[in-house]
Amino acid sequence: MRIHAAIATLFLTIASCEKETSIEAGNRRPPLGNDCRPMQVVGVDSATGRGTVSFLTRFDAAGKANAVEVYDSLSSRLLVDEPLVRTADTLRLPSDAYLLLDTSGRVRRFVARQVVNNVPQTIRYEYSYDAGGYLVRKELFSSATPVPIPLVQFKYTWTGQNLVQVEGAFVIPGLTQKVLSASLEYDLTQSARNFLPILPDAVELALPVMAVDMGKRSRNLVSRISLTTYGAGGMADSTLTARYGDYVFTTDGYLVEWKVSGDPIPALPFPPGRNRIRYFCR
Known about the structure:
Elements: H1 2-16, E1 28-29, E2 36-44, E3 51-59, E4 65-72, E5 77-83, E6 85-87, E7 90-93, E8 97-101, E9 107-116, E10 119-129, E11 135-142, E12 152-159, E13 162-170, E14 178-187, E15 221-230, E16 236-250, E17 255-262, E18 273-281
Parallel strand pairs: 1-16
Antiparallel strand pairs: 2-3, 2-18, 3-4, 4-5, 6-7, 7-8, 8-9, 9-10, 10-11, 11-12, 12-13, 13-14, 14-15, 15-16, 16-17, 17-18
């Protein structure tokens, strides 16, 4: 949680000093290849060309992710530099957490240990996919609960092969109230090859998002996300709205630049302003 708070603070700093972030329309970059995946997102100040923040996943020659890094270019400070260790169906993450993968390589479970009010506990997310390979449900469990039932359930709604809605709510007997809702809009004229999964609720996967498979991705490129979180009594306590556009592609269809405006979404590695995306190709 301290890492996410530091990143959120950095995003606010970038937003407060954001300058002109337009991208020249119509630019097409050289082709990358047939087997490429995102490995780095760099926030860039268009006025100076200087980087503001970098989210990097390192891959070995075989294409397996082996480290994650978050670098604050504004203060020349490394916020995260941690290994990723893959053993059979397990991917071990920083801060004593790990992912379990299914036979298709998709994430089926996330487990982490944390301390809440001085009480150690283990949290667990379970992910479910439909027959078409789309993520449709996520359930949160905690060892602090005396019975093995989920505390929170997230439901994902897909329309036209795009994720359009995420709803999260407590599902404890006697307590049913929202904790999160998100709506996503798309530019139906634009799509990109092998882009990142856009899951505005998945803060637990913010660091390894370039290293994991979360099933089928949305067909088109997102143009707007609205995210609302809810507090006590199910009352809305914050709403974030982010917009995405000015897409720049390679000639073979990979997204290599876009502009992000509005409020940054904490679960996604996209700072406000101009973003450049680099790829690892085999």
